[in-house]
Amino acid sequence: MRLYCILISAAALMMWSCNQTKQDDTVPVLVDTVKASQQAVVDTGKLVGTWTRTDSPYEIRILEVKPDGNMLAGYFNPTSINVGRANWISQNGIVQVYIELRDENYPGSNYSLTYFPEQDMLAGKYFQAVEGVTYDVGFTRKK
Hints:
The chain is mainly beta. It is 9% helix and 44% strand. It has one helix spanning 2-14; strands spanning 21-22, 49-53, 59-65, 71-76, 80-81, 83-91, 94-101, 110-116, 121-128, 133-141. The chain is globular.
């Protein structure tokens, strides 16, 4: 089962190459290519948990998903990094997560992620504000 999860994660990440691109100053778009028909209505409570980045030991811990679109979340690299804001939105059955970091060396760095329920995975973009570079990233649920 673990091998299956790893293969699914690898396949999902192949969809996003390791391209590094400059990001402009516009507000990040939370999702840009997922079709509504690919995902059913999702219970946002499934976002709660600890998520480990597939390429590093960095973790997002989602403790609470509130009905108003806010979340209680933490970020660890490996120590705690202050989360300035954490939000979620669901449109057409697609759940998107936005986490903005506000700490030393992370002034405005952020994650824009989409939840893929079939793989129980978060995947999307990480904008590293100090470098001004955007990375493709994925997170799997820590068991």
